[in-house]
Amino acid sequence: MFIITASQVQAQDAAQKAKLANVSILATGGTIAGSGASSTTTIGYTAATVGVQQLIKAVPELSKVANVSGEQVFQIASESMTNDHWLALGKRVNTLLAQSNVDGIVITHGTDTLEETAYFLNLVVKSRKPVVLVGAMRPSTAMSADGPINLYNAVLLAADPGAAGKGVMVAMGDQIHGARDVSKTNTSTPDAFKTLDLGMMGYIQGGKPYFYHVSTRKHTADTEFDISGLNALPQVDIVYGYANMNPVALDAFVAAGAKGIIHAGTGDGSLAAKVKPALSNARKNGTLIVRSSRVGQGIVARNGEANDDELDFVVSDTLNPQKARILLMLALTKTNNSKDIQRMFYNY
Ligand code: DAS
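That is the input. Now the predicted structure with D-aspartic acid docked in place:
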């Protein structure tokens, strides 16, 4: 009969742990940490109520794919995420990734602004180690909650050496998306996160990631942006284009001190006749203007729907308005030169 002693079991456990990657889970709130009145409550629940240790305890399988540690950095619904939250999170991520005992990071997050936090981190993380954002479309108390499997997939992705150097990723619904091009495309269904025209990165299947695409744009270790010395980001606001639009919102943002404006225009970033003079005046008074589009897919072409050279505007390329705002905020921490900023929109 083969008898194994307690110390041999401990030695085996230690050997097993030594083989696994160390993944830090940073929890910020959201539906993945949400709870509802019953198992059929998939709307009208409360986001950001379940703590990080409970999230980890609910998925015991995590210990088979990584040595995980949990940290509650915030506990908010992500529609209330602010620049201050982003700066604190970005600095914490960079501090942890600089440690040799941290191999990857998973951030649990609300889905409403998950794509924005992911893109912000894609521009400020100074490491090639994997950073994966994950959320859920159903609260933890719901029947067929997607949070546990999404968290399991996110941790195994962050623990996988093949995930290094690919930029910040989003793991939702068994899919791997790149931070730059993913967006939430549905208010409530579990398949809400999609990378439409530009293609998602791959799948997570049977406990393994499979990669098919990587971004051609600069990110993470190649970034020129540094938030280590920043305590605030320049104010940049978004005006939304629509039929019968007027310049009231634009004028109010400029009067309130916005350093940049993202114009989420109709079509190819078109400017309504009533709004163009106000945009041009704002630019002449020093506000940086970026022409983006409400459409969500496609290139906003320079000198297409407006003479950007003459107006001294920047175009957002394929970045949606909410991501263009993030890049412009970081760009304005380095320069006010519109040509240099346009280069950044073609690089990131
Ligand atoms: N309010 C949403 C948020 O926190 C809930 C969610 O989908 O995560 O983003």
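The chain is about 30% helix and 20% strand.
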